[in-house]
């Protein structure tokens, strides 16, 4: 058996058939995905172990021409053509785009060194280790082109080696590997200098960004991206860098997320000479996969990203486990959320404008969660600089603002409003001004509420925790029930009296050491330039006069209300029958006085209609008319 005498110059295609340009007629037909390759026996069996075994098994058939079909051939007809050309000695080019598929095809055909030195499998493996794994962009290109042969590539550990190489490069200075990158719009040389038309300008980049690789890996599909992030986590890459890469990838492939992430898109950075096309992803599968990759960390930007992710999750209808996990993550850092990101619209058939059920569940996760998650490092993420300033108080203030926003929804039921308020414990609100404002907005948007419903909602307010300004507003608020207004007036008077006593105490203390305080004031003015210290006494005096006038107004209003109540009670008693009054008085054991004269009765009426001041009621002696009772 001798090989073909004629030298092969190439291959040509006619429809679904490929022919070798050798002078000898073909004696083998190999079918790959419906494409027929008319080739020769000896070049194949000299390089391919699989083809040789197939010939040995078919020798008993005594057919003039051998025909076989290669089912599931990795890479399809294009990659098989490369393998055939290699068997014929035609020069083939290995590139990052075809290397993984050629590698798998060589393994499939059994093109090992046992069938010739430097066979296709060993050449592919050498190119893979010496070129692909040492170059960032080639590694990305190889991974992106591995989709058709993913199962076989994973079995041959090609994918894992690429992922490990990328992880190692991310944790190392890029300039050490000579990776040309397109950053800030200028191509860079391996040493980091900026190139102009391929000429080294000598200009250096001002800083080395830690997010230079975000754009490049965003071209991978969801499965490869997930595997890469997991590999980086195992390698110990910083969690803030991983979170940044996840956020970048998600914003790129979930267009709806950018609507709530304005100003968060990041820089556009791409590797030079890349011609990558974005991977086609299923958005629901992407979101459910991304959620599992998110680190257990907290930060302002990260919290905003989670809330945007929850919005998209509600739109796409992801599984309940994913939604619950997102709400739990948000709840553990709710004190870092903002009002605009918390206003999640309703995407279902609900009548309400906002998804208050979702926010209520987030608050419940916040209450039940333990402060076990840590923050990102302050240098890399927008973080809360004072975590010890009371997360519960911050959430209470945030929820009061949230309730005030959703209170204008005419379809919001009183029960839902109450559940939102009571989702936080009573101790979380040091001041109830925000809660009062939310209820006032709700009453204005729901004028049909009954007095009983309003009183039930107002019972959630602790009037002792209202500021003086809020009390002054509530005492004149026509939307509040009368009983609530009376309670507000009572507590307002108590607060004014307390504040007045405190101011008088401060003034007494200031007037006592007059000489020393004046010297100290002069020193303060000279030292720090605080001009306001000199005017403190004047301001206190003005505030004191205002408080006194306000107390006087409240006493007048109280006396007027008392007078009106007496008039109403007297009018009611005059309508009753005298006999009924006598019988009722005797039943309760009271002794009736003889009816006074007309002049005495008129004097009593005049005296009762003018209520005495509190001081006059104490100093005035008892009337002689009442001191001598008749038997």
Which SSEs are present, and which pair or pack?
Blueprint: E1 11-14, E2 17-20, E3 28-32, E4 35-39, H1 41-45, H2 49-57, E5 66-69, H3 76-87, H4 99-109, H5 120-130, H6 136-144, H7 150-155, H8 158-170, E6 181-183, E7 186-187, E8 193-196, E9 199-204, H9 214-217, H10 222-235, H11 239-253, E10 270-271, H12 283-293, E11 297-298, H13 300-316, H14 320-331, H15 339-342, H16 356-368, E12 374-375, H17 391-406, H18 414-421, H19 433-445, H20 451-458, H21 468-475, H22 482-511, H23 514-528, H24 536-574, H25 578-587, H26 598-609, H27 614-619, H28 624-627
Parallel strand pairs: 2-4, 3-5, 11-12
Antiparallel strand pairs: 1-2, 3-4, 6-7, 6-10, 8-9
Structural overview:
Helix 22 packs antiparallel against helix 24. With 631 residues, this protein is an alpha/beta fold. A 5-stranded mixed sheet has the order 1-2-4-3-5, covered by helices on one side. Strands 7-6-10 form a 3-stranded antiparallel sheet, with no helix packed on it. A two-stranded antiparallel sheet has the order 8-9. A hairpin with a 2-residue loop joins strand 3 and strand 4.
* Strand composition percent: 5-15%
Structural class: alpha/beta
The 3D shape can be described as: elongated
Number of strands: 12
Q: How many strands, which pairing sense, and closed or not: the largest β-sheet?
A: 5 strands, mixed
- Give the low-pLDDT segments: 1-6, 178-208, 263-274, 383-388, 514-535, 579-631
Spatial order of strands in the largest sheet: 1-2-4-3-5
Helix share, percent: 40-55%
Number of contiguous helices: 28
Mean pLDDT: 77
- Between the first and last Cα atoms, what is the distance in angstroms? 151 Å
């Amino acid at each position: 058996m001798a090989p073909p005498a004629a030298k092969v110059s190439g291959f040509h295609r006619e429809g679904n058939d490929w022919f070798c340009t050798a002078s000898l007629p073909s004696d083998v037909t190999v079918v790959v995905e419906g494409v027929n390759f008319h080739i020769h026996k000896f070049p194949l069996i000299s390089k391919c172990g699989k083809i040789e075994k197939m010939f040995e098994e078919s020798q008993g058939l005594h057919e003039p021409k051998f025909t076989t079909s290669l089912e599931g051939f990795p890479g399809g007809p294009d990659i098989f053509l490369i393998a055939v050309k290699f068997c014929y000695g035609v020069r083939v080019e290995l590139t990052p785009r075809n290397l993984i598929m050629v590698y798998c095809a060589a393994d499939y055909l059994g093109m090992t060194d046992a069938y010739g030195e430097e066979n296709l499998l060993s050449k592919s493996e050498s190119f893979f280790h010496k070129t692909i794994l040492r170059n960032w962009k080639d590694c990305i290109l190889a991974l992106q082109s591995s989709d058709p042969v993913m199962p076989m590539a994973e079995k041959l550990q090609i994918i894992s080696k690429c992922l490990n190489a990328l992880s190692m490069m991310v944790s190392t200075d890029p300039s050490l590997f000579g990776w040309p990158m397109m950053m800030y719009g200028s191509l860079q040389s391996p040493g980091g200098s900026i190139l102009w038309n391929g000429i080294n300008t000598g200009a250096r980049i001002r800083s080395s960004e830690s997010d230079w690789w975000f754009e490049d890996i965003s071209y991978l599909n969801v499965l490869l991206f997930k595997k890469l992030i997991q590999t980086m986590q195992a390698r110990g890459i910083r969690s803030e860098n991983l979170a940044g890469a996840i956020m970048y990838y998600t914003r790129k492939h979930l267009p709806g997320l950018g609507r709530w992430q304005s100003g968060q898109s990041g820089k556009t950075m791409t590797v030079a000479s890349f011609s990558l096309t974005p991977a086609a992803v299923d958005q629901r599968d992407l979101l459910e996969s991304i959620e599992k990759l998110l680190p257990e960390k907290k930060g302002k930007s990260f919290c905003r990203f989670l809330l945007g992710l929850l919005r998209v999750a509600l739109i796409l209808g992801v599984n309940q486990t994913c939604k619950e996990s997102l709400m739990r993550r948000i709840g553990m850092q709710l004190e870092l959320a903002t009002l605009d990101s918390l206003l999640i619209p309703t995407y279902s058939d609900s009548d309400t404008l906002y998804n208050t059920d979702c926010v209520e569940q987030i608050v419940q996760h916040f209450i039940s969660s333990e402060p076990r998650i840590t923050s990102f490092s302050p240098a890399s993420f927008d973080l809360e600089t004072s975590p010890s300033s009371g997360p519960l108080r911050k959430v209470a203030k945030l929820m009061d603002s949230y309730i005030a926003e959703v209170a204008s929804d005419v379809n919001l039921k009183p029960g839902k409003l109450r559940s939102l308020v009571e989702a936080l414990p009573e101790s979380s609100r040091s001041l109830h001004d925000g809660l009062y404002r939310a209820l006032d907005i709700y009453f204005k948007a729901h004028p049909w509420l009954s007095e009983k419903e309003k009183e039930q909602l107002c019972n959630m307010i602790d009037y002792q925790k209202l500021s003086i300004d809020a009390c002054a507003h509530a005492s004149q608020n026509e939307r509040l029930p009368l009983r609530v207004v009376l309670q507000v007036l009572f507590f307002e008077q108590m607060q004014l009296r307390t504040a007045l006593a405190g101011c008088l105490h401060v003034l007494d203390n200031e007037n006592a050491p007059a000489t020393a305080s004046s010297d100290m004031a002069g020193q303060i003015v000279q030292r720090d330039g605080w001009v306001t210290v000199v005017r403190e006494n004047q301001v206190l005096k003005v505030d004191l006069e205002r408080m006194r006038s306000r107390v006087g107004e409240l006493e007048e209003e109280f006396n007027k209300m008392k007078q009106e109540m007496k008039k109403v009670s007297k009018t009611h008693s005059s309508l009753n029958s005298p006999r009924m009054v006598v019988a009722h008085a005797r039943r309760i054991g009271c002794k009736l006085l003889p009816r006074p004269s007309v002049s005495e009765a008129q004097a009593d009426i005049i005296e009762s209609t003018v209520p005495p001041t509190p001081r006059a009621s104490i100093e005035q002696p008892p009337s002689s008319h009442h001191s001598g009772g008749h038997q």
